[in-house]
Design brief:
The chain has 13 helices and 15 strands. It has about 400 residues and is an alpha+beta fold. The strands form 3 sheets. The protein has a 7-stranded mixed β-sheet, with helices on both faces. A 5-stranded mixed β-sheet has the order 7-15-14-13-8. Strands 4-2-6 form a 3-stranded antiparallel β-sheet, with no helix packed on it. Strand 10, helix 8 and strand 11 form a beta-alpha-beta unit. Helix 11 (about 330-335) packs across helix 12. The relative contact order is 0.18.
Length: about 400
Amino acid sequence: MPVSKLVGARVKRREDPRLIRGLGQYVDDVNLPGTHYVAILRSPYAHAKIKSVDTESARQHPGVVAVVTGAEIKDQVGTVPVSGGNKSLRVPKHYVLAVDKVCYVGEGVAAVVAEDRYTARDALDLIRVEYEPLPVVTDPEKALAPGSPVIHSEWPDNVAFRVEQKQGDLTKAFKAADKIIKQRLVHQRMAPIAIEPRGVVAHYVAADKQLTVWSSTQIPHMLKTNLAQMLKLPESEVRVIAPEVGGGFGSKLNVYAEEGLLAYLALNLNRPVKWSEGRSENFQATIHGRGQVGEVEAAVKKDGTILGLRYKVVADIGAYHQLNTPAIPPFTGLMLSGCYKIPAIGMELTAVFTNKMSTDAYRGAGRPEATYVIERMVDRIAQDLKLDPVKVRRK
């Protein structure tokens, strides 16, 4: 059909018939001959040194093909990638399995490969890990306080990065104001919880030098590029297939440790491997959204005119950066004015490491936080000045 006939026309969704009839194929529907199953042992501690990992009993369990730990493979597969950033960005090494210590509940410590998923899961119970618990910090404001436990010892504090965004003359705006209205705002963390948790199947055909990875991902092309880099393979030898994706909402706009791990296992075992995330794992090991605490000030005239807006915010990014983590909190500053004409506006952002899973893109990627800030403040301005909130918005 010519493009001119498509613009403004009602076009039927081509994928609907197969999905309505239950004929869609998701990652867990990919069943290759000889597929082996992967289960991941996850940390019950938010912060702890790994003193030892004893995998001998698990290796000897009937049906187990392999067991790997972070220390064994840290030099064979690259760290979880991070994109974007700024001059102040601190990027700790995030291995596909923890090496010396764990920094959040759910961080992978060891992986079992077995002939079926039940054997793989049972073998996890045979792995003995000796942990030395460390002090934990989960509140982003407390993570900035003097004396707070420092999560990554290569830096003196928990600051992940800082960003300052300004437009217009804020000093002038606040001097000219009839009133300064302040508000503390909390954006709770959220877990995306797609109907389909994440899943990965990886298969390597040595004769063809071809690694194929099926992943419940929203970014197959970026995943292909990053997997090639993590495994030191030419990109031409890596193929990524995204089948039907049962929900993502931004949480699958990522390159996860499990994707690198499964690709590594397929390469080294020379057989297909599959991992399907359980719902508990999904809460622990898939990114979270939001997680900001801020103080906002509005400089206003008596008639409700907003002269300036200042937002000082602390963003909880978790223990590590994921692919887009450094980009998400600054988006809040770019969207802070919403649909309103505000001559002067600024945001001071401090991103902080905490002993939790990473935050990243989720349903608007920084924009919902900005919308909450400006709309809440317009209501507060109307309330404090005893004005109609609709009239303040029109102004």
